[in-house]
Every structure is written in C-alpha cells, then in structure tokens.
Amino acid sequence: MSPIFFVIIIIVAIAVAIGFVVLSSQMKAKRRKEMAGWAQANSLKFLPEKDHSVWLRYQLFKCLQRGDNRYAYNIMLGTIGERVTCGFDYHYETHSTNSKGQRQTHHHHFSALVVDAGLPLKPLFIRPEGFFDKITEFVGIDDIDFESAEFSQKFFVKAPDRRWAYDVLHQKTMELMLAYPRFHIEFHGTQVMAYHDNSTFSLGEFSSALKVVMGMLDYLPESVVRELKSIDYGGAK
Asked: What span, in angstroms and rounded, lies between the C-alpha atoms of 6 and 10?
C-alpha cells in the first residue's frame, strides 16, 4: 500500500468520524427542541440536562435499575390535570467481554412517561405479547386472559392480584389500549409508567402514552377508586 493511499484512507476515516459526530449532535439538538416544544404545549417544564437521581425517585420500576451510569435527560416535568407527570429519555450502560478479553461498553436508550395517580395502586405489569409468550403457554406459564380475545392476543398481563387486573382492564380500557400503539405499562406505588424497551418515543408516542395512562386512570371504576382512597399510604387517606 502506497503512503499516499494510506494517508487518503486516514483522511476519509477522520472525515467520516467528524461527520458522524456532527450529525449525531444535530439530531440530539433537534430532539431537544422538539421535546421542549412538546413540554411547553403540555404546560410542563423542560430540563435537558442529565439527572442521575431519577432511577432513585422511581426505584420501584425495574426497567430503571438496569446496568450502570444511569441517568434521565430531556426531562419534561409538571402537572397535567391534577396529576404530576414526568416524561424523559433514559440511558444506562451494560458491559461485555469480546473474544480477545477486551471489555466493551454498550449504551442503551429508551423513553418513559410516569404519571402519579395520587392513589395507592396495586402492582400490575402489561406489555406487548411476544412469540415466546405463545410458547410458554404450553408449559403452564400463562398470563391473565380477558374476555376480549384480541386484547389477550396482543398483551401479556401479570398481577399478584388477578381481581385488580380485571378491575383496571375492563372493556373500555381494553378498547383504549387497542386503539393506540402498544407500550410496556407498570403500576407501582401511586405511579403508572409507560415505556418502550430499548427504544425512544417519538413525540407522537409521548402523546399516545399520555392518553393511554391518563385514560386507564380516568376509567378506573368509581367503586375501585373509593376503595383505594380508603387505604392509608404515607400517612394520608
């Protein structure tokens, strides 16, 4: 290989690397601007800086406890209606070792939306049904099924209290969830989280996640809400 050709390769490699950095920076800036606009449209504060404490504030959600160097960014925080709402992008790292014994770092990003119901909710886990869920049905590991065959086919549902799952996921709520993109949804403490596993939301998906979570809470039966309000949590009824 001639010295001139070698130099050309190096120059091209540097140009590609610089181009990638510039493009990545432009895409990040564009997303920050779009999310700031979404936050403003929903009367939320926009905080673009990294926040390493979010996983502690929402420590009941296992998806925020993965890996290390965890932080939220592009945070949208405030109150919608009477419910404290927080949307954000999230980062964490995992590590592996290649065949040469070299440690490699893997960066993971996803988005989440958390709404505080102001009520003590029971644990509930909902996610899109996958191929392996169909297989596990044959070995006795089954999720909770519902009257809607379409809903049962599209969502995997788990809850320690099956009655609670049926209280939350009645016909109106199932119709709501089927009308929007499918999210992972978890109930813990007083909070509900909607997120994608290892992918970030588009602005449209943030809007859809907000409508789904708010709708699930709005559609809780009055008798269930009265029962929840009678439960003492944090010293309040």
From this structure: 6
